[in-house]
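Annex B. Sample input.
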Amino acid sequence: MNWDDLRVFLALARAPSLAAAAARLGVDATTVGRRLRRLETDLDVTLFEPGPRGQVLTDPGRRLLAYAESAEQAATGAKADIAGERGLLAGTVRVSIAEGLGTWLVARHLSEFHAANPAIRVELVATNGFLSPSKREVDLAIMLARPAKGPLLARKLTDYRLKLYASRDYAAAHGLPARSRDLGGHVLVGYIPDFIYAEELRYLDEIADGLEPALASSSINVQYGLVRASAGIGVLPCFIGDQDSSLQRVLDREVAITRSFWRVVHRDVAKLARVRAFVDWLDALVAARHSLLVG
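Annex B, continued. Sample output.
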């Protein structure tokens, strides 16, 4: 079995398409397809089959994935120990992070980390849903819940508070609800129910029964934009809503939602110097901005 073919298999198992796997590997999609066919011929099995969202692992593919990840972990550990990578403050740290935290806190201070660690390249992946350290898609993930399993080190990064917000112009034009049951008479902004990737994002269900957003987006930054544009009332993290003086809290004494961010890293990369450096910096940043996060 060719290790390069196994690397292609791993990339495709972690990507939604041939094109995405090819981009990650720095080759073209034709090369990915050719090496995959060679691996399937070598093993005399089919490793992927078409699915509604791209390539899906077959049963033999899932079994091979476990072996391939073990081989990759062994190779990573060997390189770190023998080549001294564990102590090297250089290379890439890829971080999966919630869009709001990435935009409103980390991105605003990331230049400070870069100035202190110019040889470390930081890649922030802020998509709907989180990439997985256990699948080696990223080095570090900031998640909304502690993962239940996997070769991972997980620690609560911080709790954070969310509140209802409206613009001052919206309040002047439409008034504000006196109690949560009155929210049904207002335009609500929130997540698209079918695109909620974590149960922790179902805020409106927690406030009152039967509340549904009339204006919805999968992006918290778009939701913020709608609230700021006086389109309606929405739930925002306090670290977003409290930084905009054109917004005001709604039902401040009645509605308070608490969630948590979890810092998750794969055991095999947790001791790498570049990963430790970013983790230490992030911990310090969150501690310094704790009052903003908890509202």
